[in-house]
Amino acid sequence: MDTAALREVVKQVIIRYAQLRPSHGNIRLDTVFDETQDRYALMQVGWDRRRRVRGNLIYVTLQDSKIYVEYDGMEHGITQDLIDGGIPESQIVLSFLPEASIAITA
To answer: What is a single Pfam family found in this protein's UniProt entry (predicted)?
Structure first.
């Protein structure tokens, strides 16, 4: 799959997660798409029980025709969503795992 197609699948997966609403608190989910550097994120920002909430929920980079999942804070993970979007497992790298277990295996 070429880089343009990878970008579109990643953006669609993140957009779907951005439509979810946290079960409590006043928290906004923001998509961040940097197509120049191929960096894609889902951020959370707001308040929950008088505490500030902020940070990444998803952070993905594209490089060398591969998707690097740098951070995946979603309950079930986004890997299957990427595969369901047509991305071959061979083009997904789970960068948040130790090097010995980075590649996706069937």
So the answer is: XisI
